[in-house]
Amino acid sequence: MVKKRGQNNQNNNIDQIFDSFINQTIFRNKLILQTNYTPETIPHREKQITQVASIIAPSLRMEKPSNLFIYGLTGTGKTLVINYVKSELLKRASKQKIPLLIPYINCKLRKVADTEYRILAELLNKLGEKVPATGLPTDKLYHKFIELIDSKKQIIIIILDEIDQAVKKIGDDFLYSFTRLSSELNKAQISIIGISNDLKFIDVLDPRVKSSLSEEEILFPPYNALQLQDILKKRAKEAFKPKIVGEGVIEKCSAYAAREHGDARRALDLLRIAGEVVERDSKNKITLEYIDKAKERIESDKILMAVETQPKQFQITLLAILNLYKKLKDKNSPIFTGDIYNVYRDFCHKTKTECLTQRRISDIIAEFDMSGVINARVISKGRYGRCREIRIDHPSNLIEKINRLLMESLNL
DNA sequence: CGAGATTCATGTGAAGTATACCTTTAGGCTTAA
DNA sequence: AAGCCTAAAGGTATACTTCACATGAATCTCGTA
User: Fold this and answer.
1) Higher pLDDT, A408 or A16
2) What number does CATH give the domain A46-219?
3) What is the topology classification, in CATH, of domain A2-37+225-301?
4) Which of A28, A242, A346, A371 lies at 20 to 30 Å from A111 by C-alpha?
5) pTM for the full predicted model
6) Could you give the C-alpha distances from A87 to A53, A81, A134, A136, A358, in angstroms and in order?
């Protein structure tokens, strides 16, 4: 069943690709609207670029740059700026034959870099050293890392993106070890760039870590609507063929994104998805109503993706939550842990899956809360005990979609 | 009536277990001198 | 005898379980006005 669906998707995709080649796509270069695309110029971030550049520039003289801490809300260009400066710096370094390595690690990726061991393993991987997924003691990885790096005189700048996620999950001990690394090195030098979406993150850190990690700090303020418009216009001009983008479309995208704390990624996604929908409808003009369609799709796509890739037990748990939610008369009234566990057990029985303990389900629910799929809060109901109060605030058609997706992937 | 004790239903931390995987080591086999 | 391969032994990370204790406000209890 699942396989069949996948195949269908694939066929659809292929069809779409063929279609778009035949029907002349409205895109000139769709990559430009993709979020991981690094444009030639980054408007309205000149100041931050100079700051970052001047902080890590000493590496070109073989001096250790200060550790740097970057924070700002999502979609304010942190990752973009860092990657830009990184590639410029690397270009320069290779021209001048300076041994410089800048591994970039995203700490949020589940199953890739969400524990101390895995972050370190990922780091070693980036440096071209194969490390097993399990079996080695963590301190051995540290030794391996030091050995690898310290073999010659060089500078390493480690970029840890979404560092707040990692610390929330596994604590800040690993950061302490990381910042202490440089004292173990003789020839090589190492500095760390931490990137966080959470503005208050730095305050929760252990003071020792805090002081050494944030030798320098840079804040990325949100873009305002005008800046967003500017960014979008520039990209749209290259991404679409002429006369595709309708009147006021850019303005509307920017306005939406500006409302969401100036999230440029959001704005770009809106424009891209709108373009895709237009293309699917085989129209040749992006009009205002397509932005609204895109807006709906983005919200659901993001969550559906996240849900689809969850492990089985997580899916069953979520399904149990949704089921309880659907039975609610008043959609604003909360759901409690005990009920979830009972429904969860039923589903385990139905799907012939081994049933986890309540302890574990409690943790799983907490993880769902962290990833933002649901909204859980620990409350005390006084005489009636203490538990998590769970709410879901997604539109009902999205919930329906998630539900269907889960049922399908669990063969129900 | 109000302060303090009680209570419930689960949160939460620590320690233990199972599993999958890694390195080391010892033994056995092959090979070459 | 040296070199190579294999399997057992001993070790680790991770996901999960078990055990035990912590929480915190609605309710209860009981002394007092």
Assistant:
1) A408
2) 3.40.50.300
3) Helicase, Ruva Protein; domain 3 (1.10.8)
4) A346
5) 0.83
6) 11, 10, 32, 33, 48
